[in-house]
Amino acid sequence: MTEPSAELNRKLFEAVEKMPAFPKSVQRVLELTRDINCSPKELVMVIEKDPVMTMKLLRILNSAYYSFPKQITSVNQSVVYLGLNTIKNMALSFAAVGSLPKDNAAGFDFQRYLMHSLTTASLARTLCQRYSQDDTNPADCYVAGLLHDFGKVVFAQFLAPEFKEALACCRDHGISLHQAEQKIIGADHTVVGSMLVEKWQFSNQLIYNIRNHHSDIPEENTMHSCLFVADQISKRLVAGNSDNPVVEEMPPVLAERFGGVLQDIIDSLGDISELENEARVFAQIA
Q1: Are 63 and 285 contacting, i.e. CB atoms less than 8 angstroms apart?
Q2: Could you read off the pLDDT of 26-65 as tens digits, one per residue?
Q3: Which of 50, 171, 174, 249 has the highest local Cβ count within 10 Å?
Q4: Residue 277: other Cβ atoms inside 10 A
């Protein structure tokens, strides 16, 4: 991958700086859930101090998607029913959605983007649960899926003319969007996306994998492997392509790890409509 020039780096940095910070309450949720000794009580206290997060959390829990036998009326109940990692993923989803503008001059479809990201997140988590051979946390793979394409949001807002041209190039010439971005802008969404998650103070592992999710990575990198496969499945079957219609070939090393080509992996997962339903509920309520 060609490295951006100093001038382009400056331009990208300025664009990233214009993006809103993650809410402090969500940052605190992340800090707590990274601590294996975190108590549910601590997490509940943080969420309860954020009325917007509390409202959205309770709306999701009391939606038809979960269909609990009785109404959930408190954050404490939500943690009991769903656990720390699921609550963390919800909080992250709310924050990610809150960072999206209502419209953009590039004509980028944020609703399709959101569904693609949420579905990729759920698929990456599921793939990690099923195929991981190390201690990679499935919840971390969910975060990677949720945020992997956020660089597109930065482009759509702050480099709109160039991004609009890249979208047209991708569509008209049948090439991957990241290749079109390289051609038109000089850098792709993985570059600016990794800069953004670094600003948001996520882990070095997440920064690295977002920066390289269109690059060849050794098979032992579980997060990257699950993210790559989840991204392709989401584009092919479930939630649309986030303005990138090209489904990439499975590298032989990943085909061996996951037991076949992309269709084989899809078949092994069985009915994945629930993952799409989860993404749709999160998108509507968040």
Answers
A1: yes
A2: 888 878 877 778 788 888 888 888 888 889 889 888 888 8
A3: 50
A4: 14
Which of 195, 176, 143, 159 has its CA nearest to residue 242? 176
How many C-beta neighbours within 10 Å does residue 59 have?
Answer: 14
Structural domains of the chain, ranges and CATH numbers in brackets: 10-285 (1.10.3210.10)
